[in-house]
Amino acid sequence: MKKLSSAEIRQMYLDFFKSKGHDVLKSAPLVPHDDPTLLWINSGVATMEKYFDGSVVPKNRRLTSSQKSIRTNDIENVGRTARHHTMFEMLGNFSVGDYFKKEAITWAWELLTSPEWFAFEPEKLYITVYPKDTDAKKFWQEVGVASDHIYEAEDNFWDIGEGPSGPDSEIFYDRGQEMNNLPADDPESYPGGENERYLEIWNIVFSQFNHKPDGTYEPLPHKNIDTGMGLERITSIFQNAPTNFETDLFLPIIQATEKMDNNKKYGEDPELDVSYKVIADHARAVTFAIGDGALPSNDGRGYVIRRLIRRAVMHGQKLGIQGAFMYKLVPVVGQIMQAAYPEVLEQADFIAKVIRMEEDRFNETLKDGLDLLNSLIAEVKQQNGTELPGAPVFKLYDTYGFPLELTKEYADDEGLGVDEKGFAAKMKEQQERARAARSNAKSMGVQNGLLTEIKTPSEYVGYSELETTGVLKDIIVDNELVAEVTAGTADMIFDRTPFYAEMGGQVADQGLIQDAAGNVVAKVTDVQHAPNGQNMHTVEVVAPMKQGAEYTLVVDRMFHEKVRKNHTATHLLDQALRDVLGEHTHQAGSLVEPTYLRFDFTNLGSVSQEQLHQVENIVNEKIWASLPVETVVTDIESAKKMGAIALFSEKYGDTVRVVKAGDYSMEFCGGNHVDNTIEIGLFKIVSESGVGAGVRRIEAVTSKEAFEFLEKRNQVLNQVAADLKTTKIEDTPRKVEQLQEQIKKLEQEKQALEDKFASQQASDVFKNVQTVNGKKLIAAQVSVSGMGQLRQLADQWKTQELSDVLVLATKADGGKVNLIVAASPAAVKSGIKAGALIKDIAPLVGGGGGGRPDLAQAGGKKPEGIAAALKAAATWLENN
């Protein structure tokens, strides 16, 4: 077997399948694009679903990739097992209705055993197959696998529910008994068993069935191949490493971490080794996740990043590392992965900044968490308890980032256990909330055989023509091809069309279809791309239409013109945001409608009004500069050399369109644009808000809609000026300032009068002292403005030492009730607690409350219950 680096292994795998006619796909970002069912890209096949379910037919049905992925469903195992990771790379080769079992098996064996490629010893490889899959077993035998190296296993069937499914074959490598964690005669010491000797290195799925909603299986219209080989795992074999962490993918990160500590070396203490592994794993995951557009937050994928950073920080503390350190590992990760992912080093400064900010934030909360944990331990020991309750332990985990195992260690040091069942129950509640927040849609649909078979050529001419003739090639009604349609909804494909299909945030064109006589026969309501790329028109038919007939297709010109103005404006906005906020900002989604545009972008914090004003000014300056807008069609590498901006979430073909607005903006784009920025006229930001973890949204209008927006604002300002009786609009701010000063002065005078009135009431109320159970009580309703003045009366009472207990109530604005209870130091010492008293009487006014032993307050919604509450206070005192 050869000695190869991880970069060489990755490249060799891709080169092998390229030699077999596969297109090599670049790894998609970890943040899924247009899939609400996925938090992260979690496998190689996750990026292939549109091909496997038939919604898109690839140009080449043979594909291969090395796809970075994240899974965090059992994060607690990271560092404690030899091969568990949050982020990993999955090498895969895929056939979308092209080759099947024989070729997949033949090529797998060639890659693994050929001296030109991996050069594994055939006798060290073992195969598992599904018992009923006799074809797979036969093909493995034909390539030279010995019969005693093929095992049948019932669980070798890949099935995720409704959608594609089928049998699979797993390939295992025999690392030798010296690598095993079990005796050779242990029942689990076999390929596929729970052992360290036989390592699974590759899974080949033969996707040949549709799993139907009723639970039955039917053959797929197109059979597929989906394989997965973990790069980290296969690298450990090439480098003869005991675990994945001793390979060149992780060891440099561990060694860099060692230098931050100097006291505890990797390999000296198994428990501390876990911490090194966790740090190395999490450093990779968060570096790539942030680089792909995710940012730390309290929910979704942002919460995952925050949790990974905090776990790593806690393990850093176990190693004796003080202060922020994770951010220093970013360039180390970048150097390891540079061959395949040069963008990591390019973004290293930004990624490190994000991680450093998160580390600093966590270090600030860490002390509070430790204080809470120590307080919890002390409380449990005071009550002679034996374990920490699950709910507060989960709070430590969820709010302060304390891993369960860390809390268990602290508890164990104090001779206490942890209520792990209670913790698990709280964790389950959170997971159910998270699942409920995501879409219930299936992640992969059932193939549509009809649409994938339609390969009629269709030319889009809308870049230069908004009206053209086209021959109606295909009519689809209720998922069936028909020769004629007389009314209702249908999908249609023409050989030529000026209608833009929705893509890249730009909405589809609308318009009409006319017959040879100029009569309207259909209205186009939507246009989408068919699986083979044609523009498929959804139409409402109003007169008979026939396949093969020629029609005139007319785009709604006004609709189209407004859309293209807004589309060009989004490009100007994108660049302006980079200019003002920094190059780390990139597009996270957009919507280009005729009446407005919406633009989502990444940013660490909110955008100030001053920054928005700068952005708006820049865009308008570029509009008024009359910049020519040009389109260049070129190959993707030339476009990148030109400096064109590509969306991280998009995949591009060999030929791309680059849209340039003068020398200011240059982006990959297949949409429609104005010929000159002056056509946009005017740009106005309507709103800016947050829509997710580290993602902001700007909504804006242009042209006529921008003028109408400003005119409405002007009308409002004119009305305000008239109401303020100012002769000039320019004087309005000063007039408002004068009114605010007057209001402030009146409020101060009002407060002074209320305080004086409250004091006058106090002199009367405080005289009414009753004795209950040997304690002096003042209980009364007063007429004051709210809780603030009740507290002032309580302060007066306290300084004058007028009774043991004070209970005051007032009817506040809106029919609400405020209650306050105070107890003197002597009363508190005798066992009277204001908080307990107020909890007893607050329900009588329809509310609740609490507080300290000496002062408590409550609110309610039933003023008619005030008398009963005051009476109940005396009763409570009688009984306590």
Highlighted features:
6-stranded antiparallel barrel; aminoacyl-trna synthetase; 9-stranded mixed β-sheet; 5 domains; BirA Bifunctional Protein, domain 2; nucleotide-binding; protein biosynthesis; catalytic activity, acting on a protein
Description:
- Strands 1, 2, 3, 4, 5, 6, 7, 8 and 9 form a 9-stranded mixed sheet that branches. The protein has a 6-stranded antiparallel β-barrel with strand order 13-16-20-19-18-22. Strands 30-31-32-33-35-34 form a 6-stranded mixed sheet, with helices on both faces.
- It has 24 helices and 35 strands.
- It has 5 domains: 6-244, Bira Bifunctional Protein, Domain 2 (BirA Bifunctional Protein, domain 2); 300-437, no CATH class; 449-555, Elongation Factor Tu (Ef-tu), domain 3, CATH 2.40.30.130; 564-711, Threonyl-trna Synthetase, Chain A, domain 2 (Threonyl-tRNA Synthetase, Chain A, domain 2), CATH 3.30.980; 760-879, Diaminopimelate Epimerase, Chain A, domain 1 (Roll), CATH 3.10.310.
- Helix 3 (101-113) runs parallel beside helix 4.
- By secondary structure, it is of the alpha+beta class.
- The longest helix has 35 residues, at 348-382.
- 38% of the residues lie in helices and 24% in strands.
